[in-house]
Specification:
By secondary structure, this protein is α+β, with helices and mostly antiparallel strands. The protein has a domain at 134-209: Lipocalin (Beta Barrel), CATH 2.40.128. The protein has 3 helices and 7 strands. The chain has helices at residues 2-88, 92-107, 119-132, and strands at 136-140, 145-148, 159-164, 169-173, 180-184, 190-195, 198-207. A hairpin with a 6-residue loop joins strand 4 (169-173) and strand 5.
Length: 209
Amino acid sequence: MNFRLFAVAAAFALPLSLATGEEDISKLKSSEARTAAELDQHGTDVRSLDRRFQEDLARLEEAYLSERERMQQTLVESLAKEQKSLTKKGKLDQAIQVREQIEEIAATEIVPPHPATSQSTAHNASSSTLAKGIQGTWRWSNGVDIRNLENGRTNGNGSWRLLNPREQVYEFQWKRLSPDHVKLSPNGRVLEGTKANNPTVRVWAVRVD
């Protein structure tokens, strides 16, 4: 009797076991298909995002170049007026210096800055530059690269000194040009200000090392 009951139970259990196995296989295939579809979609989304990034970057660079050209032209026009005024006053040596500045600025190639590849890179670079103060090489608005040395001198015949430690304002003395008063940006990458004797003339420098 027990043997018959066992045989009957086995007969019912076998189809159920086969059905469960088929369901497991079906679920596995369905899961694999979903995973493959998600991976494909992810790849498509990434490529789409990359395209949008490149398009946005191109527009941003174009806008940057346009604005820099506008700023450069404004500066040249301002310096041209200053040169004309100096010439009328008979200050020919100063007028010649201003003219040379105009020529240097006009010949400067405008190149967009390269963004940091990550927040950590930007943070590390910022920390490093802040620790260095203003020592190192800077590209000035007239297109000339100047290296600020540790002893308050530059690699040319200029010198620099800290005027206001709290505001991080520096003075640069040049052999042939009037002094500059510039302020160091919070990230330690930009010096920006004016001529000491003419606050209408803007000057700036960007760290290049």
